[in-house]
Amino acid sequence: MCQVGEDYGEPAPGEPSPAPRPSREQKCVKCKEAQPVVVIRAGDAFCRDCFKAFYVHKFRAMLGKNRLIFPGEKGLSQDSAKRLRFVPGVIFVDEGAAFGKSLEERSKTLAEVKPILQATGLPWHVVALEEVFSLPPSVLRCSAQEPAGSEGAYKAAVDSFLQQQHVLGAGGGPGPTQGKEQPPQPRPDPQSLAGPPAAAQTGALSQLFCSVRTLTAKEELLQTLRTHLILHMARAHGYSKVMTGDSCTRLAIKLMTNLALGRGAFLAWDTGFSDERHGDVVVVRPMRDHTLKEVAFYNRLFSVPSVFTPAVDTKAPEKASIHRLMEAFILRLQTQFPSTVSTVYRTSEKLVKAPRDGPAAGDSSPCCLLCMCALDVDAADSATAFGAQTSSRLSQMQSSTPLTETQTPSGPCCSSGVGRVLGCGQGACRREDPQACIEEQLCYSCRVNMKDLPSLDPLPPYILAEAQLRTQRAWVLQEIRDCLIEDSDDEAGQS
Amino acid sequence: MPAPPCASCHASRAALRRPRSGQALCGACFCAAFEAEVLHTVLAGRLLPPGAVVAVGASGGKDSTVLAHVLRALTPRLGISLQLVAVDEGIGGYRDAALAAVRRQAARWELPLTVVAYEDLFGGWTMDAVARSTAGSGRSRSCCTFCGVLRRRALEEGARRVGATHIVTGHNADDMAETVLMNFLRGDAGRLARGGGLGSPGEGGALPRCRPLQFASQKEVVLYAHFRRLDYFSEECVYAPEAFRGHARDLLKRLEAARPSAVLDLVHSAERLALAPAARPPRPGACSRCGALASRALCQACALLDGLNRGRPRLAIGKGRRGLDEEATPGTPGDPARPPASKAVPTF
């Protein structure tokens, strides 16, 4: 492909011509004995057992290489290296209410999912998305990381089924970990034995999602709420890690999607192996080296059961959302240039989690209210794309119409240069425009998403409560800033 | 239904809606807003200090035409002087018409114009000759590679001839967005690490380059040209359809349809990328032949020309590069001197 470092117009390097189909005489490339059943990458044919070994090896190597799951353990012996020494639980989030599925449909899906969860032999939890309405605001606070070793008994990981499990089983598999640990007595979570969630909450959730204007914003909101919910469950049950089943293909698509959404600053967190932005709970993606094809074949060859549940964008046309567009584009480009996904993946490995430069950096740097990444916009951004949006506000501001939310893609009146131009104080903003005050606590891409929400009221109460708390805190800090003594050498007292 | 009044002056009837904000404006107010935004870009980024002699890369196309026009309107405010520099790549039937447009513009605006031709600068090689040479080895796509590199050199040379202190090009927000998409799809970590900023400050003796239109979307550039009744040349280069950038451009069009702010969102993403230090290109040195900025013994332009002259046009592209200097080290991935295959868009 037109790839840096390759000759133009030639097929993928290392091949004089497209790979010949494995002939009947060809043996598995690894053990060289058995008949191959699947072709991975460009022409590597594996037999069933070697494929399983290859798949599991990649999974383990990804965990071991990143040394994240066993932070305190030293000197793993040869034997113990063969076993994954942690006890994962499995969590399933029922999101049916978000796209208007009836209670019967949802209980039907649950009836299919529960046996699968039970069959894994791991502790499992089922939770409905409506529960976001009972979350506490503390979910949005980055807790400090717990010191390694203090949770020795609970060094557990939670497998999270991705909502979009296609028939071929693209979702996170308990497969690789099956049968490798001492399975505890499977005990269902008491919470999931409760009846269906309160109708009021279901109504509130569907109202929230119906009010979102674009599919792109819906998908992003869904992801945000799901993340918060899983985070809360993990904390409640003492899990320190959350594993998701994102494959290489999905992560490549996710990377390009997030690029288009304005999340360029956070790509390393969104698509890297580990994501510690929440502090005490780390999101881990152990399957990021496996292509979707490998996952599909694994599930098929080893009969890993999966359930297909329609997602918020099922049957939507290709143009409906950025996510759909990017997925279709990448998969189409992949047919023409077979190294597309691996190229994007390799590039993603070169991304680092860089702190934002400037006086806002450090432990006290503000985090986005929703996605909990360090804010990537501030008042100094006059010479950037963000600044370009705010400056176009300036030229519109001549006629000094009051700010309405349709006119506020970004840069609310408080802390940006525009506000200073208009001379409005923070106190005034707080009273007149709570929406703008919430917006300034969001990162760039969350702000763009919130534009598609005509009113922020249907949001779950924990978000609004936390936003209010932060605004008040910031206001208080502003009041006393003159009296505080700062350690740093930077010029103090910038307001 | 009658057109709404202009949201800015409230006097005239609105003639357009700005693509980004949907605001209804009359022609004059839109042009004023556009110019104000370009001015803000230049001032906020401190791109063109007072007293600068600015060489405008003029291709005759809409971007460079709008750029020249806006900068000309802003010269009293900025305290700069303008020089038009046009590059003649020697593409028959295409470049001649474009150059005619540039000459008309120069005459109308009374700006000095300098034309530099590949044929003179690069030992008789025109793009048509390059295309013939590369077509023989079955890679017609790579002629865009040559054009990009050589054009940048030609522009630099033309700017020097007129005594310029800065070079400006007409890249708009869509170009920047396409570039970041393309660089990810092609895995060009080196270029990702370098690009996305406000142009290059000009290291190692190269002139500083910037893109004053980089936050203006393509639609707005076209709208501006329409309302100011600017005369420009609007055909696509004959070699362009082969370039990989076409995929990125297609994707960008669709993204914009799904979300109008996609272009600026991508530019925002590009500005905030954080790449590992190893991915960043090494400190550049000087080409042993022509003295220009280079990250290896020969700069890319000299390397490409060398290959052409030796009858081995692939020499400086891809793995064939190894044959260039016999003791060459294998090419590192993400070589910053390698330009993207693109329609006549110089590398940043």
Give a structural overview.
- The complex is a heterodimer of chains A (495) and B (348).
- Chain A is built from 15 helices and eight strands.
- Chain A has helices at residues 48-66, 103-119, 199-211, 215-236, 248-261, 267-271, 292-301, 322-336, 340-349, 385-396, 417-422, 426-432, 434-439, 444-450, 461-480; strands spanning 38-40, 44-46, 89-94, 124-128, 157-160, 241-244, 274-275, 282-284.
- In chain A, strands 4-3-5-6-8-7 form a six-stranded mixed β-sheet, with helices on both faces. Chain A has a two-stranded antiparallel ribbon with strand order 1-2.
- In chain A, helix 5 crosses helix 8 (322-336) and helix 5 (248-261) packs across helix 9 (340-349).
- Chain A starts with 37 loop residues before the first strand and ends in a 15-residue tail after the last helix.
- Chain B is α/β, with parallel strands linked by helices and 348 residues long.
- Helices cover 42% and strands 9% of the residues of chain B.
- Chain B starts with 15 loop residues before the first strand and ends in a 39-residue tail after the last helix.
- The relative contact order of chain B is 0.15.
Topology:
The complex is a heterodimer of chains A (495) and B (348).
Chain A (H helix, E strand, L loop, with lengths): L37 E3 L3 E3 L1 H19 L22 E6 L8 H17 L4 E5 L28 E4 L38 H13 L3 H22 L4 E4 L3 H14 L5 H5 L2 E2 L6 E3 L7 H10 L20 H15 L3 H10 L35 H12 L20 H6 L3 H7 L1 H6 L4 H7 L10 H20 L15
Parallel strand pairs in A: 3-4, 3-5, 5-6, 6-8
Antiparallel strand pairs in A: 1-2, 7-8
Helix pairs in contact in A: 5-8, 5-9
Chain B lengths: L15 E2 L6 E2 L1 H18 L8 E5 L4 H17 L2 E8 L6 H15 L3 E5 H4 L5 H9 L7 H19 L4 E3 L4 H14 L2 H6 L14 E2 L7 H10 L17 H14 L3 H10 L13 E2 L6 E2 L5 H10 L39
Parallel strand pairs in B: 3-4, 3-6, 4-5, 6-7
Antiparallel strand pairs in B: 1-2, 8-9
Helix pairs in contact in B: 1-2, 2-9, 7-10, 7-11
Annotation keywords:
heterodimer, A: 495 residues, alpha/beta, 6-stranded mixed beta sheet, disordered C terminus, B: 348 residues, 5-stranded parallel beta sheet, two-stranded antiparallel ribbon, 12 helices, 42% helix, tRNA-binding (chain B), nucleotide-binding (chain B)
